[in-house]
Task: structure prediction
Amino acid sequence: MTRNLKFFIFPLFFTIIIFLGINILFGKTEKAPSFTAQIVETSPLRKINIQPNLSAQSAIVMEVDKKGNDIVHFEKGIKQKLPIASLTKLMTALVVFENPLIYPKSMPITLSKKAVSQIDASRYITLEEGKTFSLETLLNILLIESGNGAAQIIAETLGEKEFINTMNFKAKELNMLDTFFVNPSGLDNRDNYNYSTVYDLAVLAQYIKKNYPEIFHISSKEIYHVFDINNEFYYFIPENTNKLLFEIPEIIGGKTGWTPTAGQCLLVLFSHPHKDTYFISVVLNSQNRFEDIKNIIQQIYNDN
Result:
């Protein structure tokens, strides 16, 4: 071994020894794999066993959480197609809210002869052809007193046929496959009527609550003063058609309906005093819609 080679090997050898010693001293070893716990968010929804005694031919009770998860707690004929009377007006209002360029709230709308001649055009006054209101006022008439004149003239503003087509298109878009509309009010038209199922209507209510809660806010008003486009008082709506608003403060909103063909119909949304969710309940062809819904709400509230 040459002298120069010795000078090269010995320093290299000692460098390796020192490096290994430092690693051993400070415990530098291969890191063990780490595991991060995955947090799985669960829905607060759980099945509630309720068996309300109902007079309705068809009924549903659905609960919805903040994320849009839902669960059906009770069902009775939920896929049965039945006439829905003025529950129709929820879809009528939805078409308006989904088309703000066509239907700005301040838009003046003048009552037509066909609008004022509708059955129950208003429950409290004989509407005058040629009288003009803002769209916002007509929406309140539509949803609080369930005015059929308001429904008719709202549809005529777009074009009645086109408006009804839009209602049916929206139903298909929401996957309400057992729903069909022939008019914007829910009135029986000879052998034709608007029909749906309690399940489809619950889907509609959930969509409205998420995207256009103002519709249910309007529907929860207990009284309303009607002014024309010139801000002159026209008439007074002394009560909402939904009598449960005066009895159950947890009700968020909803819609009533009745025709000879449909019987008594009612859709309500209500909250729970101890839950961060809301409930949708629908009854069709009921003999006593308000008692049916009160029965449902009582059983929900009594659940522990």
